[in-house]
Write a structure and sequence with these properties.
Elements (H helix, E strand, L loop, with lengths): L28 E8 L2 E7 L8 E6 L5 E4 L4 E6 L10 E8 L2 E9 L4 E5 L2 H13 L2 E6 L3 E6 L3 H14 L17
Antiparallel strand pairs: 1-2, 2-3, 3-4, 4-5, 5-8, 6-7, 6-9, 7-8, 9-10
Length: 182
Amino acid sequence: MAQSYDDRPQAVPVAMQPEEVNSGASPSQMLVDERAGGWVAIHHTPDAGVHTDLCIAGSESEILMFRADADSLQVRSADDHWTLATGEKGDMTVTVGTYTRVFHMQANDATTLAADIKPADLTGLLDAMARNHVAVVKFGDHTTLSVGLSGSVPVLDRFRGCAETQHFADLGQGAGQKSSPF
């Protein structure tokens, strides 16, 4: 059985779930690793906990999410009220303190945008998030949303650890991580 750090049953935002999770009885499971301040880190196991094939962290509002697997590292955003055409493209600007980055997003489905990101670039964003209290996410020139970062440090540290342990990406040492107990 996979190790879960939170034994309470928790709903996982739909945009964070692989498609096969909702398809009936299956050894495939999404498990919550950390939850704090409106942020959640989860991982997916396709075989009842023997392996982890996906690490995800994000705001429970789904405005800002991160995804790592063996093939890619992504920044994502989702909204159940969106009606995006598959492949629709647009820019999403994330500002955290002095950090600003424009992501060229593409719709995965009607409600989810994603962009690939290099490990060093995601490390910079995660580091900025650890030092600040709010992230501002702007879609094109129209919609601007704020995401509180309170509680995000342990969640994003858990995501970094998952990505590194599974050899998906080295995202540096998080603000709340300690290299040694001594």
